[in-house]
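Give me C-alpha cells for this 783-residue protein.
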Amino acid sequence: MEKSFPLDELVDLEELQSIQDSFARAAGISSVILSPEGEPLTRFTNPTGFCSLIQSTGKGKERCFRSFMEMGKIALGTQEPEICYCFVHGGHFVAPIMIDGKHKGTMFAGQFIPEKFSSEQLHDLKEIAVEIDLDPGLLVKEAENMRVVRENVIRNYSSLLFKIVGTISRRGAQAAELSRVNDALQRAHDGLEKRVQKRTAELAEANKELKYEITERKLAKEDLRLHAAMMDNVSEGVYLIGLDDLLIKWTNEIFTRMFGYDPGEMIGKHVDIVNAPTERTPAETRISIMDVLKETREWQGEVRNIKRDGTHLWCYANVSLFDHPEYGKVIMSVNTDITKRKEAEETLRESEEKFRLLSENSIDCIWIVNTKLRFTYLSSSVERMMGFKPEQWVGTKLSSHFKKKEFLKAGLLAVKAIKNYKTFTHVTFETKMLNSKNDEVDVEISSKVLLNSQGKLIGLQGITRDITERKKAEKILKDSKIKLQLLYDSSSDAIMLLDEKGFFDCNEATLRLFGCANREEFCSRHPADFSPPTQPDGTDSISYAGNKIAVALKEGSQRFEYLHRRLDGTDFPAEVLLDAFMLEGKKVLQARVYDITEQKAAQKAIRESEERYRSLFEFGMDGILIADIETKRFKYANPALCKMLGYSAKELKRMSISDIHPKDNFEYVISVFEAQARGEKILAQYIPCLRKNGTIIYADINTTVALVDGKKCNIGFFRDTTERKTAEEEIKKKTDELEKFNKLAVGRELKMIKLKKEINALLEKSGKEPGYKIVGKPQAEVF
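Here you go.
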C-alpha cells in the first residue's frame, strides 16, 4: 500500500506561512491552515480584534475550535470551498485541501461580515459574551469595529489563495511520489550493481575491455527493462520523445490506450500527432514548454491533446528532461487524464453563467437561503421589487422580511422543507413581504430544497414574484362578477340567452328594444317573430341566422349585422354578438343586440367627413405631413407641402423628418413635436425647414398624434411664415432705429427744460417774474 504523506511533509510550511501572511495582509483578512485533526499547520495571520478577544478565554477558544471543526466538516462534505458562519455570526471562507481524494488539511480565511451586525445579532453577542466569560460591552464594541466585506469579494480573494495552496500541495505530492519512484529505481539499481559485481568477479580472467563492454550493455538493457516494467505498471500515460527530433521513442500501454492507438503504433511518430490546436499553434506551445525545460529541467501544467479519432483529451502533464542510455537526451511526460474534470468545470461554468444571466435578467427575484434561513444570494431584481440592494439582504434572516403573522406560514413551510428535504419537492404560496419603506408587498413564493453534489441539504432556493397587480386584478374581477349581474339587469344593451329550444331569458333592455310587455312574452316567441322574411341582400333570414349560430357554437363567438323586426312591425338594423359558453352543464348562446340605426347614420356622416378631410388634405393651403412616430419616416404629404419644400410626394415618402430640418436645429424640433403630442401648448414658430434646392424657409408648425393605417403617426401642419418673419424682422429693425432717435430727442428736451429752470431761478432771485412757463414732463419722464 502506497504511503500517504501528511501536508507538512509535502510542502515547506514556512514558505506556505509566508504566502499566507502576504496574502492575508493584502486582502485585509485573517487566515490559518489546520490539519485534518484540527491542529494548526500555519500560524494565525492577521487576526481581528474581535477574534483575538473571543480566543482570550478558555471557553471562547474552545467554542472557536468547535466552530472551525464544524465549518471544516461542511466544506469537507462538499469537497468545495464554502462561505460559513461561526457561532458569533462571523463569515469564514473554508476550503478543504484534497490531494488524490485524501484530506490533507483545511484552509480558513476570515473573519468578516457582509453587513453591519443587526441589533438582534448584537443582542445575541451579549449573551454569548457572558457564556464565554467576556465583558459583553467590550465584545459588542469590537463587533461594531468589524470590517464589512461582501461575500463575493472574500470568495474571490480567498479562492486565489486556495488555488495557490492547492498547487503547492499537489506539487509537493508529485515530488514525494517522484522521490518514491526514484527510491525504487535506486534500489533496483543497487541490486543490479550487486549482480554485475558478482558476474564481474566470475569473469575476472576474461579480457577486461570486453568484460567492461559486455557489462555496460547488460546493465543498460537491464535498466531499460526495469524502467519499462515500472512505467507500464503506473496508472498514468507515459511517453518519451527525443529532444532533437521530437519523435516518440517509447510509450507505456496506458498512454497508447488513452489516445486510441495500438501498442507500438505511435513509435517513430512526431509528437504533434497528440497536440491539439489551441489559441497558439502546437509548435508555439511546444517552444514555450521547451524554454522552461532548459531552465528548470521540469514543467507541470494542463494541456489539451487530440486523440486518434479527433476528439480532445485534457491531461495534467509532468514533463522532465534527462539523459537516456539508449535514446540520448529525451523528454519524459507523465500524463493524467483530467478530461472529465475539465468537462465538468466547463459544464459548471456554463451552468453558472446561465444561472447568472437568468437571475440577473429575471423580472422575478431569485434567491437562496442556507439551512439557518439566512439569505446567501439574491438577484438584482430585489431592488426593483423591494427597494433593497441584494447585498443589504445577504446574511439577514428570512424572518426579518415579514410581519410576524405572515412569517408563521412561510417559516413553517421552510422548516418543513428542511426537515423533510429528502422527500420534499417544491411549494408555491402567496404571502406579504416588507419592502424598504416597511410596507407590505403581495408576493408569490415558489421554493424547493437545494442539495450539493453529494445530495446533502445546503439550503433552499426559490423565486419571489410581485403579484401586487395580479391581486388588484383579482379584486377587480371579483367586483366585476358582482357588477356583471347588476349590469345584466340594468344594461341598456339588449342581452338574451337561447338554446336549441329558443329564448329562455332576457333583460329589460331587450323588452324595450323589441316592444315586448314582459320576459314571459319574449321567451314564448319564436326567433322568426323578430326578423323579416329576408335580409337586405335577399338572403333568407332564418337560414342566415341558423348559419351564424352554428359558427358561434363551433368557434365560440360570432359577430354580424342582422335586420330585426319589432312586434309593432317596424324593422331596424342591428349588430349581433353571439358568445357560446357552458351554463349548468349545457351549451348556451348569449346574444347582444345593438340597434345600429344611429351608427349607420354616423357611418354615412364619417364617409362624408372623410371626403371633406380628403379635400382639406389635397386642396388645403397649409402643408400637411404624416410621419411614422417611431421611425420618423414620411407616409403622406399633401400638394401644399410638396410645393412649399420643392419635392414631389413620391420623393418625400422616401425621406424622414431629419431630412427637412437643419442638423443643429433637429433635436429642438423633435422635442417640440413630442411636447405637442403630449398635449402641451407649445407654439412652434419660425421653425427652419430645408427646401430641395438647399434654401431655408420658415414655418409655424403644429403637430398631433393619431392612428393612420393602424399605426401611431405624427400629423404636422405647416404654415409658411417666411414672409411674415422677414416683415417682423424689418419692423423690429425700424423700431430699433426709431427708439434710438427718440432717446436723442428726449435728451435734448431735458437739457432745454433744465436751462429754462435755471433762468427762472435767476429771475426770481433778482425779483422779477419767471420768463419761461414749464408745462408737463418730457417724454422720457413719462416712461
